[in-house]
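Hey, quick one: can you model this chain's 3D structure?
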Amino acid sequence: MSMSPRWLYLHGFASGPASAKGVALAEHYARKGIHLERLNLRQPSLERLSLGAMMRTVREALGGERDRAVVFGSSLGGLTACRVAEEDARVCALVLLAPALRASEQMRRNVGEEGLRQWRESGWWGTRDHAEKRDTRVHFEFIRELDASEARGDGWPDVRVPTLLIHGRQDTTTDIRYSREWARDQRHVRLVEVDDGHELVASLGRIAAEADDFLRSFLGSPAGQ
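Sure thing. Here's the predicted structure for all 225 residues.
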């Protein structure tokens, strides 16, 4: 077994492994001899999306019980990374990009009261599939599952590993105030605020530079898969 950690990238809601940030970061680390594996978190499907299924996919990708992993997570992928890191000691560092902390609360705000009522009554919420560039829908059980996850503890992920958190001040999807509140008084969490929106596409160079600096202790030798 290689002593180098695996490197994993977790995309966001209604996105996929070919997301712009995932591809850009994978290319950046490939130039350093590191394979950043971009997982498919559309589990078991986007319509039947399940946080539990997403977490199982991540745990399977972590490898054997003696393996370790550096995990990048964007938006809902960031929340998933946190929830896995809470329970699995194989995660040794996190890089979170506009993470969907308290996702149930944030989704309710984004959908609105009337939208939530319709979602509950019909069982489905119409949304855009950014990966496949088509309209789709997501079942109401997804938000029930998020509710149950956030009902445990105080609703915030209990992460103990070194964490870099990058969030845009103009983000209207996952409000930066959640990242500020979570990072406050946590010495192992470094919050970097950028002048950007949720997609963070204007900040890719900054993200790569901040991640390189933050993860420098893992960059000494190429990671083997």
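One thing worth noting: The radius of gyration is 17 Å.
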